[in-house]
């Protein structure tokens, strides 16, 4: 059985033959290569699933699902309560910590599932829909299932066990896609999504426990209330941050579904869904490595500083061109892929373009803050960005879905910048060094995105050419855009280009 404490001893990475935990530069590149290679596959599965379901379901049905599951998603945060992060960051008494976290999150999950079930009539009233209320009641059980995944996932992350990305995530994606598509084809409608969610969560649970090789108490670990209180002190700012963001998601869903319509909520859901595909593929591959790596390097200022700057340059350099492409061709792209009835989702996607760069900044800033144990600093990010986000949401709501998307984008970028500024002194990084990492990708991507936008909207018109021809045009435009970005980066920011090229080569080698 793999030892949860393996990460503390520098043991080889489980599931990755011949690997060992080294400096963050090597770990991040290796981890990004392994995780991104499979994440590309996972996101392709999600994309195909999204395209197929968009043809089978009406926007209103997707809106019902979003409304009905928003409460269970929100309460899942309370069940986890930041304990997974505490387990990853912890250095001693790992067996006792793992057992304590297991029982704490399981009991919390059962309690919050009961709350979700009891709240279903309220959800039905808020959205004026009995179907939404029924979905909310049925979805309550997913909170308990998610609670059972936290410890095995955290233990694998502690020891840089990338099988969580190589195996667990693809199994989850394939299970949901296969189940939901088959059921929707056979007329289950929105309930196909609900059943698919349960099936994929069960698949997640089975594979995670199998790979983690851990059972509560089997390694001698015992739950401890005193230890739980110690973990809770570390986790509290993370819980506040996550709860506030989940609450904003709930508020946004209620506002869009109530003030606009179920169809608008469907556009909102799929716009965010499509926007999260590249964001997840790029950020998740890095942030899964960053937190445990920063935790280990926190006592070595020079290595921590170098790792901070490398991670920032890498994630920012990958996300900025994605945002540029979305702004330039997002609306026609969604229309080509999903059909004319989903054009509103394309509008939403364009307005959400700022979320990716914001998350890239947060991935570096917040993970480094967590790695050094200074989680209290996150309270400033939570307070400022939550107030700003809510104010922007209501101020821009008269613009419809575009206003909602812009509010999310702006608050995400502000949260990223603020977390980066708070992390800067911890990493010993100067403002000049930050500017040298953040400036060149923006200066290179902007003219390339402008050229792409002019080509698409004045000449190509991919959304007027049918599915196959439209996809071909978009692919051609995407390749040309990336070539322009790569050439500009190689010319004006050679250091950033070398770092990105190294990761791309390792991803190709891993594939």
UniProtKB/TrEMBL annotation:
Localization terms from the record: Cell membrane
Entry membrane topology: Multi-pass membrane protein
GO cellular component, one term: plasma membrane
Keywords, in A-Z order: Cell membrane, Membrane, Transmembrane, Transmembrane helix
Segments passing through the bilayer: 32-58, 64-88, 100-125, 131-151, 171-189, 195-214, 250-268, 307-330, 342-365, 377-397, 403-422, 434-455, 467-492
Family, similarity comment: Belongs to the polysaccharide synthase family.
Name this polypeptide is given: PST family polysaccharide transporter
Organism: Mycolicibacterium fluoranthenivorans
